[in-house]
């Protein structure tokens, strides 16, 4: 982090993901004057942080965070080409775009780390997978990891292809869980509860179960069994949800396969 404070950091794009990460770093004590953000539409929050917005680039920043949409990368990234092939690490959170594609744009000697975070990073509860190219040294990987740990847990994956599956599970996963909350609330309404009560029940149940799954010594399967009284009520619901043909297992398998297919399309 001393290196970031002295050489500086650049953010390309500062929407939901970029802001969540920047907030974590600033809350952790990073000097805003060490940060330069390039973004066409800076938010009020960003302007008030005291970072440099759309200012000239530092000559040799320690790190560049790439946080534009994958579809914007080809248009946005070439402006940073002068920082490639040096000792600046490029840390990308964009889905789908491969290390090889970054090397094509920035130069083959550029240290690049691909990362896939998720939106709970906004409250310091994210989980991010990372993988580096051949020029990302241990020190570069450690820098990327320590920056990402400011917003949650970090796992390193052995090779880039695994980032696809990780994206489909933890990158997209919060959306699946939010949809579970929505659909539980809807089902509660359908069964006669007031909408606000149904939403409160669904939200607290998912949050409470998540916290229990994270802290309990038992694994999730045992926690499920703990809820399921033999011959009781939960068992009947689980008979539907755990059905091998029509329940969660085949449904989630299809959802994950669809996410992976799209990730492949984005990297084509
Ligand atoms: N939202 C999520 O849950 C996750 C998103 N990601 C990745 O993070 C990246 C950003 O996603 P979000 O933050 O959700 O999108 P967003 O739309 O909130 O932010 C993108 C930002 O890039 C800016 N931008 C557009 N064109 C630009 C240009 N030419 N130069 C500089 N900035 C430009 C936009 O103004 C915007 O502020 C994507 O590549 C996505 O794949 C990764 C993990 C999770
Ligand atoms: O939907 C997307 O493409 C990004 C990647 C993971 C979460 N959001």
From TrEMBL:
InterPro entries: 6-PGluconate_DH-like_C_sf, NAD(P)-bd_dom_sf, P5C_Rdtase_cat_N, P5CR_dimer, Pyrroline-COOH_reductase. Its EC number is 1.5.1.2. The keyword Nucleotidyltransferase does not apply. Its main location: cytoplasm. It is an enzyme of class 1 (oxidoreductase). Residues 160-266 form the Pyrroline-5-carboxylate reductase dimerisation domain. Keywords: Amino-acid biosynthesis, Cytoplasm, NADP, Oxidoreductase, Proline biosynthesis. Residues 11-95 form the Pyrroline-5-carboxylate reductase catalytic N-terminal domain. Pathway: Amino-acid biosynthesis; L-proline biosynthesis; L-proline from L-glutamate 5-semialdehyde: step 1/1. It is found in: Cytoplasm. It catalyses: L-proline + NAD(+) = (S)-1-pyrroline-5-carboxylate + NADH + 2 H(+); L-proline + NADP(+) = (S)-1-pyrroline-5-carboxylate + NADPH + 2 H(+). Catalyzes the reduction of 1-pyrroline-5-carboxylate (PCA) to L-proline. Belongs to the pyrroline-5-carboxylate reductase family. This is Pyrroline-5-carboxylate reductase. It comes from Celeribacter arenosi. The lineage of its organism: Bacteria, Pseudomonadati, Pseudomonadota, Alphaproteobacteria, Rhodobacterales.
């Amino acid at each position: 982090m001393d290196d970031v404070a002295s050489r500086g950091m650049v953010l390309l794009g500062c929407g939901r993901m970029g802001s969540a990460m920047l907030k974590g770093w600033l809350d952790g004590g990073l000097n805003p004057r060490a940060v330069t953000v390039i973004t066409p539409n800076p938010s009020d929050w960003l302007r008030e942080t005291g970072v440099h917005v759309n200012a000239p680039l530092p000559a040799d920043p320690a790190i560049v965070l790439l946080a534009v949409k994958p579809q914007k990368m080809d248009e946005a990234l070439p402006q940073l080409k002068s920082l490639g092939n040096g000792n600046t690490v490029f840390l990308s959170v964009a889905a789908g775009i491969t290390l090889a594609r970054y090397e094509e744009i920035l130069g083959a000697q550029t240290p690049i780390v691909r990362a896939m975070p998720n939106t709970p990073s906004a409250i310091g509860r994210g989980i991010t997978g990372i993988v580096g190219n051949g020029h990302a040294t241990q020190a570069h990987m450690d820098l990327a990891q320590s920056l990402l740990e400011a917003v949650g847990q970090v796992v390193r994956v052995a090779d880039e292809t695994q980032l696809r599956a990780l994206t489909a599970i933890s990158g997209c996963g919060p959306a699946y869980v939010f949809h579970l909350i929505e659909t539980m609330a809807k089902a509660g309404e359908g069964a006669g509860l007031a909408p606000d009560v149904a939403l409160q029940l669904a939200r607290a149940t998912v949050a409470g179960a998540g916290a229990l799954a994270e802290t309990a010594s038992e694994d999730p399967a045992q926690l499920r069994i703990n809820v399921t009284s033999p011959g009781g009520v939960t068992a009947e619901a689980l008979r539907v949800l755990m059905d091998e043909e029509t329940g969660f297992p085949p449904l989630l398998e299809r959802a994950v396969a669809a996410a992976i297919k799209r990730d492949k399309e984005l990297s084509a």
